[in-house]
Amino acid sequence: MIKEWATVISWQKGEALLSCDVKASCSSCASRAGCGSRILNKLGPQTNHTLSVACDTPLVAGQKVELGIAEGSLIGSALLVYMSPLVGLFVVSALFQALFGTNLAAICGALIGGVGGFLIAREFSLKFSRRETWQPVILSVALPPNALRVETTTSADSQ
């Protein structure tokens, strides 16, 4: 199970609207100064992802929840999204190269195959997204933001 914390935006009728922060791929690595991935993460937009998850427990805006998704569904969706355009690109490119014998035909076949693979991935991902095993679930719920209050006193207040 892959876990991530999210913040509740709203909860209505058993449906929680959650916001997940996008985290950089590396933030605690020892080689931060010379890391190309860290620089690329700084250049990109820092966005939040909003998703809707079924939840019977009433939630309060600002409350933290721990989400979980099965590894198998995450790996399956990654394979679908990345591999189908790639396979389409190579297969149709090779087919056009064999049929027409020119590099231009191979390039056109690669474009057609890549776009076709993307469209196939999009169609299958819509079907797979309806599966219950591919949906994130709420694993645990933190205290509401106003449930715990800590008071501190200074020495001047206690005299």
UniProtKB/TrEMBL annotation:
InterPro entries: RseC, SigmaE_reg_RseC_MucC. Keywords: Membrane, Transmembrane, Transmembrane helix. It comes from the Bacteria. The chain crosses the membrane at residues 74-96, 102-121. The keyword Transmembrane applies. Pfam families: RseC_MucC (PF04246). PANTHER family: PROTEIN RSEC. NCBIfam families: PRK10862.1 (NF008115). This is SoxR-reducing system protein RseC. It comes from Buttiauxella selenatireducens. The lineage of its organism: Bacteria, Pseudomonadati, Pseudomonadota, Gammaproteobacteria, Enterobacterales.
